[in-house]
Amino acid sequence: MINAAIIGLGWWGKTLVEAVSGVSDDIRFVAGTTRTLSDDAKDFAKQHDLELRASFEDIIADPAIDAVVLVTPNSLHAPQTIAAAEHGKHVFCEKPFALTKADATAAIGAAEAAGITVGIGYNRRFHPEITKLRDIINSGELGTILHCEATMTFPNALYLKPGAWRADKNETPCGGLTPMGVHAIDGFIDLCGEIDEVYAQSFRRAVEVDADDTTSILFRMKEGMSGYLATMTATGGGFNFQVYGTKGYVKLEGMTHVAGAPSEERRMRLFGNCTFKPVKGPAKTWDAELFDVSRAALDGFAKAAAGGDPFLIPGSEIVHGAAVTEAIVKSAASGQREKV
Q1: How buried is 335 (Cβ within 10 angstroms: 0-12 exposed, 13-18 middle, 19+ buried)?
Q2: Angle 315-334/101-114 helices, nearest 10 degrees?
Q3: Which CATH number among 3.40.50.720, 1.10.10.10, 3.40.50.2020, 3.40.50.2300 corresponds to the domain 2-122?
């Protein structure tokens, strides 16, 4: 059992604590810190036996804390990872790990030099349906992979206030890319390998804050297949992920992390209806099992930190994901295809 501190107690930070509180044999949260020490944060900390600390620096200086879980603004992830590594703390970081390849490389390098484990919150990788899809692809059951695509939507930006960090284009460029789309990009990397080039368009149609709400991206993978991703932050929540091959396609449908939804829903119901349609014959459909992806990701991180199997997502793929994010933002600004 490792002792962890939660850095950031917004709605998602609370969700991560709830995922393992009283049920995990691998990780427990014993402390936390938050930028706004509200009565709500104090009540939550009391409910989950968290000692609230004054600062991140106070937490990483504490030898009784083994790991930090970063649920902080995106620009802080890399420097906080480096600082935690210098104090020998394992790091689980919410996505995106960094907004540039250089920052991601520096942070992973610091972690490797310190011998600490780094985990990242691409929790959908841990769902049994993604494991099943990975096995189907690797077995050749889908044939030659031609294309993968995803659509991810939620209404969260409709409720953003101008002062929120998620409303800052420097923190969350390209609208739904960093809060949602990077999950799908990680899926593309996992299932199809590294991404070679991207073309993106991103703009604001409806939200009141100065943030994009409609983003679409074309991809070409190094292995040759194509990809497409759309994110919208001002409509109903939903998730579709499809992989097409010469022998058929698999389609996974589900939900996104909608702010204000019950914690159990955000953690356990991200996948719903699933379809396999072969080239010949009828489609097979089934319902995904309920599965707490947040707990699975944190448990996997804790096991790795304790000397068990390595975390599911290696540092090289974390860095590549950051490089893809950087290229997408560059493409949206330039209006051109950009190499990763």
Answers
A1: exposed
A2: 170
A3: 3.40.50.720
Query: CA–CA separation, 251 vs 276, rounded Å?
Result: 7
Distance of alpha carbon 125 from alpha carbon 293, whole angstroms? 8
**Residue 70 to residue 15: CA distance in whole angstroms:** 13
Q: Sketch the domain layout of the chain as residue ranges.
A: 2-122, 124-295+322-339
Low-confidence residues of the chain: pLDDT under 70? none
Q: Is 188 helix (H, G, I), strand (E, B) or coil?
A: helix
Which pLDDT score, from 0 to 100, does residue 108 have? Answer: 98
Query: What CATH number labels 124-295+322-339?
Result: 3.30.360.10
Can you give the pLDDT at residue 189?
Answer: 98
**What is the pLDDT at residue 35?**
85
| Angstrom distances, CA of residue 126 to CA of 16, 131, 327 | 15, 7, 26
Rounded to whole angstroms, the Cα distance separating 224 from 182 reads 20
Instruction: Return the pLDDT at 190.
Output: 98
Q: What is the pLDDT of residue 197?
A: 98
Residues 6+ away with beta carbon under 8 Å from 180:
152, 153, 154, 231, 233, 256, 257
The half-sphere exposure of 268 on its side-chain side, counting CA atoms within 13 A, is 11
pLDDT of residue 234: 97
Which helix (H) or strand (E) is 153 found in, with range? strand 145-153
Q: By the 8 A CB rule, do 77 and 102 touch?
A: no
